[in-house]
């Protein structure tokens, strides 16, 4: 790494076991669907727990538990106003990561759907080549 104090450009190849464990914890936190729903709800701006609970249709204790995990990892930030705590995305680049993964999953689903539709005969298989004599020609490899 260029500077021992600058980790912003670090790549996974340069990480030691402790850093990789921290990264794995970050991904584990994002593997919970409710936390992803919270991130989506915060795309439009900050919310308090009551607002998030109403948007997500979940219990306040459940929302608070997931917010606590996201807060501990630095994914969200909290600001207190009076008796309410408002949450916002701490680093908007999290959406780039989520969108990258969603795009990859979308491509995999599209490819699987194409195979499925082809298997069911909904998409015609490529036409067989024939020789001048009208017989099927062997496929090229």
Account of the protein in words:
The protein is elongated and about 85 Å long. It has about 140 residues and is mainly alpha-helical. It has five helices and three strands. The protein folds into two domains: about 10-90, Orthogonal Bundle (Arc Repressor Mutant, subunit A), CATH 1.10.10.10; about 90-125. The chain has helices at about 15-30, 35-40, 50-55, 60-70, 95-120, and strands at about 45-50, 75-80, 85-90.
CATH superfamily of the largest domain: Winged helix-like DNA-binding domain superfamily/Winged helix DNA-binding domain
CATH class of the largest domain: Mainly Alpha
Please give the alpha-carbon distance between the first and last residues. Answer: 46 Å
C-alpha-based Rg, rounded:
24 Å
Estimated structural class: mainly alpha
Number of strands: 3
Poorly predicted spans: none
Shape-level CATH architecture of the largest domain = Orthogonal Bundle
Along the chain, the helix and strand elements come as HHEHHEEH
* SS summary, helix count: 5
The best one-word shape is elongated
Into which percent range does the helicity of residues fall? 40-55%
In short:
By secondary structure, the chain is mostly helical. It is built from five helices and three strands; from the N terminus they run H-H-E-H-H-E-E-H.
